[in-house]
């Protein structure tokens, strides 16, 4: 017994040594090759002090409700821009304007950012964001990287399949993920097919007023709409959307929504629907103009697709749309031209909801099925006719040729990518420079911070024939999609402009004053290095006395018109804080319901005398 | 009666008059401020009619050392300088058309005197701003006098003062004024 153990131990050790010798023995200069390799990778991403990254990566922050701004290729995080979620650091959700914009919501689920487009290319003016959690759409002004409007969308059940934009930002479209009775009203799940609907919101955005408008909504069968894209160039009148749960499962979707071998890609002609709405062919449903595309000839078709697809992405030239199979391990290339021919020929059957179904064989151009590549989720493009697909299950990126389906290269990702984002890779004019895989699993890629892990992003250089994995970078949960836009297209301001006509603004220390109207106290104050002036004529210009129960408005203007001199404004014990950027006027509104003495102080370090930048709020008891 | 100045001299003086007039619209003097936090620099630019550049920012920073705020209102010269400059341009034109050397001597003397007074006046202001610092200021600094030309260091700032286009043009006008003395020498 003992002898046997000893023998097996010796054999084990010997085998181990052999393996170690074979695998780790120094048979060549592999190590030096690797270190030279790493050096050249490092050189590709190192941005020396004084120089800047070539690209902005604007990544959704998922259920953080925020926008993450990264520099590419360095993968340095530059800023978090709050969109659907309050942000005490900047006072977003605390000052009057952003508080009203957020309403009572404390979170959002931001999945897919979309930079405003002109002729199918990013124009860098605005970024639009969807909130799957609370059915909202938001716009971020890329001149100030600040959210400027949020609109609630009625009749929706989580607009996951947005946002995507038509070629000239005519519409910001958001298809729903969960079918739901219109208006979210009560209806038994037994009445799913009759009572539940899928809805697409078609919103417009006025760039001058910086305001959304819900132009119309499209009512669809209660399928789940997963992802979508707008056509480009010759196909720009069309939008395409992937569906799942055409089974109408109402429970345990994991199994029950994965039964049909085919789901659909829905093709909608938004131009025709726009005209129908203009002609009054709509019903008013909870304040939305609801159009049924089945009532508009030629406005809706469906194409069968391998089951439960995720992304559908239109090629840069606008001739094809590519579905990523997710549960079917293949990418299906569909031709818009073939679809248009099939429509022309009238070659279709009716689906039970009355939607014409185009024959798969007639519209499909090619199925691309790299062996062992599993779980394709999303497609990006370069400038040389290649597509790049993320493979969630086999954890890799596959590069292939759109025209032939030929697989060019495959590189692992660490681990399980969802979307990928290539430099301008979803526009009519991709740059073909970098690709970032937005991974769902990080495991031990980075120093551990316990059970809650960061997500992980892989950066690939895609400028050569083969992709080169350059680095992995951690990111807060959780970017679903990102867009990478060249820095020349974004023109941020350094300061807010001095606008003497701006309501509630005060531009000189001497003009700071307090007005009392009944139980309202309006402080027209200024912040400057390194003091607050609330009332220029008072004995103590930085103290404000109010009565308990007064409604207090601090209208603060930061009159330091100097780059990066931000002033914060926190009130001790009152759970209030906000910021005013140089040249900005913001209002903090609250009821002084607690009597007492409360220090006010600048919360954003502004100068050598920042610590002294303070005052008092004195609340006289009733 | 002496001979009049030559035609060439007349044109030279007319050119001087025009150039003097043009200086109304260009900056004469400036000061650049550099600090670790301001690698791009801050500017004070002085036109004969107004101050320009990052005046508010510089004032904001100066309050730490108790320097008085400056603005167009704090320099009465800016109110009447345009008249003086235009006046000298007109006088130069008159001398050009009268073409009398004695008047030209007078003009040159006046111009030189004006320049000297101007520089003394600048020096006076620089001294006033640099030395009359508010004793209650948060940062105590030894009084200082920034130079009219060249570099100086104040706290974290390195300043660089310089004459610019307006001053160069005035120099050119001066050369055009004395040119007739050489051109018409011995006449």
Automatic annotation (TrEMBL), chain A:
PROSITE patterns: COX2_CUA. It is an enzyme of class 1 (oxidoreductase). Its EC number is 1.7.2.4. Keywords: Copper, Membrane, Metal-binding, Oxidoreductase, Periplasm, Transmembrane, Transmembrane helix. The keyword Transmembrane applies. InterPro entries: CcO_II-like_C (IPR002429), Cupredoxin (IPR008972), EfeO_Cupredoxin (IPR028096), N2O_reductase_N (IPR011045), N2OR_C (IPR034205), Nitrous_oxide_Rdtase_Sec-dep (IPR026468), Nos_propeller (IPR041114), NosZ/Cyto_c_oxidase_sub2 (IPR051403). The lineage of its organism: Bacteria, Bacillati, Bacillota, Bacilli, Bacillales. The chain crosses the membrane at residues 7-25. The keyword Disulfide bond does not apply. GO terms for molecular function: copper ion binding; cytochrome-c oxidase activity; nitrous-oxide reductase activity. It is found in: Periplasm. One of its GO terms (cellular component) is periplasmic space. This is Sec-dependent nitrous-oxide reductase. Gene3D superfamilies: Cupredoxins - blue copper proteins, YVTN repeat-like/Quinoprotein amine dehydrogenase. Pfam families: Cupredoxin_1, nos_propeller. It comes from the Bacteria. Residues 518-622 form the Cytochrome oxidase subunit II copper A binding domain.
